[in-house]
Amino acid sequence: MTATDWTRRTAAELVDALAAGETTSVELTQAHLDRIAAVDGAVHAFLQVDTDGALAQASAADERRAAGSPASALDGVPIAVKDVLATKGLPTTCGSRILEGWVPPYDATVVARLRAAGLPILGKTNMDEFAMGSSTEHSAYGPTHNPWDLDRIPGGSGGGSAAAVAAFEAPLAIGTDTGGSIRQPGAVTGTVGVKPTYGGVSRYGLVALANSLDQAGPVTRTVLDSALLHELIGGHDPLDSTSIDQPLPALVEAARQGATGDLSGVRIGVVTELGGEGYQTGVLARFQESVDLMVKAGAEVVEVSCPSFVHALATYYLILPAEASSNLAKFDAMRYGLRVWPEGIENASAEEVMRATRDAGFGDEVKRRIILGTYALSSGYYDAYYGQAQKVRTLVTRDFEAAFAQADVLVSPTAPTTAFRLGEKVDDPLAMYLNDLATIPANLSGVPGISVPSGLAEEDGLPTGVQILAPVQADDRVYRVGAALETLLEQQWGGPLLAKAPTLDALRDGSSLASSGTGDQA
Amino acid sequence: MPESPRSITRDEVAHLADLARIDLSDAELDHLAPQLSVILESVAAIQGVAGDDIPPTSHPLPLSNVFRADEVVPSLTAEEALSGAPEAEQQRFSVPRILGDEQ
């Protein structure tokens, strides 16, 4: 080990260290690659590690800085990218067999912006297949393990990005959030995750799950780091027709303002329907503690009711499968990805090849959702299911509008429980879906949300999170309130929550787990 | 409007898998059909929640057609576009036969 462990620093601290000449991008990129080599055999946050590419990008970053012309504030700070974003020259699988080994010929806009800003890409992170799931257990390449307890799930679908950041394998990561896939992994791994306003970050090159719900965003250890990353990846993109053609609010400034810990004049709404029954005792206790701290810091708390939220889960599980069944129709074994010839059929037709390929290439959860979506869109059922879901979506948005007339932000626990054990819910789809109870309404209406660590549940010692939601295009509010809550809680804890997580250092010393698998698609 | 809530039969799942172009084995049908029934019974609860006067939302932000300037920009080469294809021939995607013997 070196005297300075760069992997324990926040991205903002690395920015300062690079600017002060205390380290180089090559040194800290190498430090993170070493950490990945040491612990990722056990954590399995990465599907692909790009050692050579990351070091080459780091070296270029150092040259720019030496010449006095860094490409951005974050130039040289390494990052991990969820495997659902297209990366030119680097395999992109979406956690699916059907895209095994696919190397995109282009970059997603988010990735292009990371490259232009000089962030070395460490690799691609594990996820539930096509982002369908809340545990990463639906990845075709094996689950990711929660760094707090390797027998437990890291959340999902972006469990790989959250675990990479929580295990100090990367200071920053990109996630995507369709029903909570950034925020819920954040909550169960003790990290920060932000779902920006729908349209706030380009979806070009993001392999679509449900295109009216998907949104890419930052996965980090601090609120300020998320703001730095969000400002870098966000903003209008002419390649995404649903991208918002307006400037982002000042997010870093909002995070710095919030970090003072003052919430005077801020009205905080506690959503009645996102709490109570179905929520773990320790999760609720930590949530109440956070609300009390915000009151002490000057916030005014009101209780708001959003009656349609009780139907949000059912609405989501009609709209999402409907969109997913359409989006995944492109995996037809013709232009990219897997092609499987059916057994026992001579001179098989394109359609027969397509059927065999989709059976072999898709996992159970993907099949469930495609079939459910096909059903919801079938003539005769369309009005009763999909049409009705679209109307309830309107009601959810009206509830948000009414709530934001009474409060500047809304708060709730991010996830109803702490991390459960691997395998516990993998074949019980309905139980798995309940993990996204509190996060789904934001996706239905496009509003931004953040999850901030709120402590450890008393009964199991595992992390919990608080979710803060703001009106569309008021992302700055989630950063202000999120940073304030982070400051207030860390004052109470005497440091960040992740300081209490297992170091995983024992894995460094030749354990069999640590030496297997890293860098390969296993 | 169909009767609610309803479960879904194994035969219906087989038909839907056919529409979605997925070959499901008998074992998969046995496994997935009951799970889909449970999910469907659960989501069926939204029937009747919103009245006829509620407009549907298809997209979180109100958008009309979006155009960008008609400028020529670099695009993928044929080689790049074909780089992920299971099979390519003469700068084209090579696919299995698309017509039946009787066609």
UniProtKB/TrEMBL annotation, chain A:
Start and end residues of each Amidase domain: 27-478
SUPFAM superfamilies found in the cross-reference section: Amidase signature (AS) enzymes
PROSITE patterns xref list: AMIDASES
EC number: 6.3.5.7
Entry's Gene Ontology cellular component terms: glutamyl-tRNA(Gln) amidotransferase complex
GO terms (BP aspect): translation
Catalytic reaction annotation: L-glutamyl-tRNA(Gln) + L-glutamine + ATP + H2O = L-glutaminyl-tRNA(Gln) + L-glutamate + ADP + phosphate + H(+)
Domain of life: Bacteria
Keywords assigned by UniProt, alphabetized: ATP-binding, Ligase, Nucleotide-binding, Protein biosynthesis, Transferase
Active site: K82, S157, S181
A molecular function (GO) term: glutaminyl-tRNA synthase (glutamine-hydrolyzing) activity
The keyword Nucleotide-binding is annotated on this UniProt entry: yes
Class of the enzyme per the UniProt entry, highest EC level: ligase
Family membership: Belongs to the amidase family. GatA subfamily.
Subunit structure as annotated in this protein's UniProt entry: Heterotrimer of A, B and C subunits.
Cross-referenced HAMAP family: GatA
PANTHER family: GLUTAMYL-TRNA(GLN) AMIDOTRANSFERASE SUBUNIT A, TRANSAMIDASE
Protein's job: Allows the formation of correctly charged Gln-tRNA(Gln) through the transamidation of misacylated Glu-tRNA(Gln) in organisms which lack glutaminyl-tRNA synthetase. The reaction takes place in the presence of glutamine and ATP through an activated gamma-phospho-Glu-tRNA(Gln).
Protein name: Glutamyl-tRNA(Gln) amidotransferase subunit A
Automatic annotation (TrEMBL), chain B:
Molecular functions per Gene Ontology: asparaginyl-tRNA synthase (glutamine-hydrolyzing) activity; ATP binding; glutaminyl-tRNA synthase (glutamine-hydrolyzing) activity; transferase activity
Lineage: superkingdom: Bacteria
Gene3D superfamilies listed in its UniProt record: Glu-tRNAGln amidotransferase C subunit, N-terminal domain
A Pfam family recorded for this sequence: GatC
Presence of the UniProt keyword Manganese in the record: no
EC code(s) of this entry: 6.3.5.-
Region listing for Disordered, in residue ranges: 79-103
InterPro entries recorded: Asp/Glu-ADT_sf_sub_c, GatC
Keywords attached to this entry: ATP-binding, Ligase, Nucleotide-binding, Protein biosynthesis, Transferase
Catalyses which reaction(s): L-glutamyl-tRNA(Gln) + L-glutamine + ATP + H2O = L-glutaminyl-tRNA(Gln) + L-glutamate + ADP + phosphate + H(+); L-aspartyl-tRNA(Asn) + L-glutamine + ATP + H2O = L-asparaginyl-tRNA(Asn) + L-glutamate + ADP + phosphate + 2 H(+)
NCBIfam families found in the cross-reference section: gatC
Function as written in the Swiss-Prot or TrEMBL entry: Allows the formation of correctly charged Asn-tRNA(Asn) or Gln-tRNA(Gln) through the transamidation of misacylated Asp-tRNA(Asn) or Glu-tRNA(Gln) in organisms which lack either or both of asparaginyl-tRNA or glutaminyl-tRNA synthetases. The reaction takes place in the presence of glutamine and ATP through an activated phospho-Asp-tRNA(Asn) or phospho-Glu-tRNA(Gln).
Family: Belongs to the GatC family.
Assembly notes: Heterotrimer of A, B and C subunits.
HAMAP family: GatC
Protein name listed in UniProt: Aspartyl/glutamyl-tRNA(Asn/Gln) amidotransferase subunit C
Source organism of the structure: Nocardioides guangzhouensis
